[in-house]
């Protein structure tokens, strides 16, 4: 068996996506607390499902990271060789 060379790239991409999600969630209070001169247009009840989904996505990403780590450790113990990534012709 061989280790996939794309695993680390995909894991890094997932971490970047989680960080972007964290950044977007950080701007959420600004949407919920508008300046006193304007009326709130986003009811809190509509934000709860979005926050729940975001929280679940972050949790899933953390679990995937753990699975990847365990898989890499098992591949190392089994002495898997790195796979050679084939480049598809254009």
Automatic annotation (TrEMBL):
Membrane topology label: Multi-pass membrane protein
GO cellular component: membrane
GO biological process: malate transport; monoatomic ion transmembrane transport
Keyword Phosphoprotein: no
Predominant location: membrane
UniProt-annotated location(s): Membrane
Family stated for the protein in its record: Belongs to the aromatic acid exporter (TC 2.A.85) family.
Protein name as it appears in the record: Aluminum-activated malate transporter
